[in-house]
Amino acid sequence: MIYLDNAATTSMRREAYEKMLPYFIDYYQNPSGAYESAINTQNAMEESRENIASLIGATKDEIVFTSGGTEADNYAIKGCAMMHKDKGRHIITTKIEHHAVLNTCRFLEENGYEVTYLDVDEYGVVKLDRLKDAIRPDTVLISVMMANNEIGTIQPIEEIGNIAKKRGVLFHTDAVQACGHIPVNVKEQKISMLSASAHKFGGPKGIGFLYVADGVKIKPFIHGGSQEQERRAGTSNVPAIVAMGEAARLSGIEMKKHTEYVTKLREYAIMRIFREIPFVRLNGHRYKRLPGNMNFCFQFVDGVNIQVMLDMKGVCVSTGSACSTGSGKASHVLLAIGLNEELASNVIRMSISYTTTKKEIDETINYLKEIVYKQRQLSKEYIEITKPYRRYGWRR
Ligand code: PLP
Fold it and tell me: Hey, which residues are catalytic here?
């Protein structure tokens, strides 16, 4: 198998997997236990919190464990909306957010809040002047993702943080795709809240965290016991928390090395595809993008057909984000950057990691060339457009 869908989920780091194992059987105590043997699990959780905090430039007490990115997004947005409802009921976000943010905003709209969905430019970058214009006296939150899960575009987070701070509005960023892959510093970037998810950076699924800056007040989202300093109720998932901490620690140490390797491999793949396959478009920003993200339109070919045929060769890619697969709808992200429905259906996302090899990329592109070529022979539009070229023996 050639796995090029690391934006959907990553394989767990073996070190993280091994580190979590003793917490199932040897150290299974509930960390809320008042006896001495619970100290081991408490310490392990706090060590993990420390590792996560240092990955994003936060302090330990600003990290709240959640069941993943979706919960962290829900908690940040709903918690902030509830807390500040007397100040105002207006939220600003963008048209290209993950559904964990968009559908949370839609829920709030049904409950008396107003949401402004900002446009992005053709590369998927938020327009800062539009953001400034959208802020109102009753705005309680700006939520802009750090990096997009489909097209990989990285937003000008520090500029957004500065705008939010100057105007006295809280700033949440969904960093699920960014955390562990690109440098994050919540203090320098003036972030009030940040969501992340372990399974995107070599940790297990079903665990994540929300960073809440010291002094920022939001309402708890899950009610129950007093875990996580009364910020998130429910017995802590100690093994997963331990593994997430280890994955965070290793991601921090190896980030520079991995970014260099992955970016080089991505550029190699992009250049090969540009050179060897005609009528191709790279979606997202050419350089301000996640190291491992590639998102292409192969004009005249249905992305689903490419995906299925690559799958038959043992190559895993995606036609959009994992969450919209099967929905049959054109991606809201691709429409927001200006693609029409047809071009948006020609899309393949390949997300590579530090474990991807050049050989795997070469094999994939060789398959891709053949599949795209064959599929295009079935397209009347393609045949028509390339008629003049083919007269001179052009074979693509
Ligand atoms: N936000 C973004 C940008 C994502 O890519 C994802 C997952 O794909 C999520 C949120 C949801 O995270 P989780 O799978 O941990 O619930």
Answer: 323
Structural tokens at position 155: 């937003």
Please indicate, yes or no, whether residues 51 and 120 belong to a single structural domain of this protein.
Answer: yes
Q: How many distinct structural domains can be found in the chain?
A: 2
* One domain, residues 217 and 266: no
- Ligand 1 surroundings by CB, under 6 angstroms: 68-70, 73, 98, 100, 145, 149, 174, 176-177, 197, 208, 322
Ligand 1 atom with the smallest distance to the CA of 8 is: 8
Boundary residue ending a domain (194, 225, 251) = 251
Judgement on whether residues 247 and 113 belong to the same structural domain of the protein: yes
Which residue among 177, 244, 290, 324 has the greatest number of ligand 1 atoms within 8 angstroms of its CB, and so is best to mutate?
177
**333 shares a domain with 187:** no
Rg (C-alpha) for the chain, rounded Å, is 22
Within 10 Å of residue 272's Cβ, how many Cβ atoms? Answer: 17
CA of 10 relative to ligand 1 center, distance in Å: 12
Its domain, for residue 165, covers 14-251
Ligand 1 center from residue 286 Cα (angstroms): 23
- Residue from 144, 88, 77, 131 nearest 112 by CA: 88
Three-state secondary-structure class, residue 34:
coil
Nearest protein Cα to ligand 1, atom 10: 69
Specify the DSSP class assigned to residue 143: E
Q: Digits of tens for pLDDT over the chain (396 positions)?
A: 999 999 999 999 999 999 999 999 999 999 999 999 899 999 999 999 999 999 999 999 999 999 999 999 999 999 999 999 999 999 999 999 999 999 999 999 999 999 999 999 999 999 999 999 999 999 999 999 999 999 999 999 999 999 999 999 999 999 999 999 999 999 999 999 999 999 999 999 999 999 999 999 999 999 999 999 999 999 999 999 999 999 999 999 999 999 999 999 999 999 999 999 999 999 999 999 999 999 999 999 999 999 999 999 999 999 964 445 556 689 999 999 999 999 999 999 999 999 999 999 999 999 999 999 999 999 999 999 988 877 766 655
In the chain, how many H helices and how many E strands?
15, 12
Are residues 311 and 164 both part of a single domain? no
- Ligand 1 atom nearest to 70, measured from its CA: 16
CATH number at residue 51: 3.40.640.10
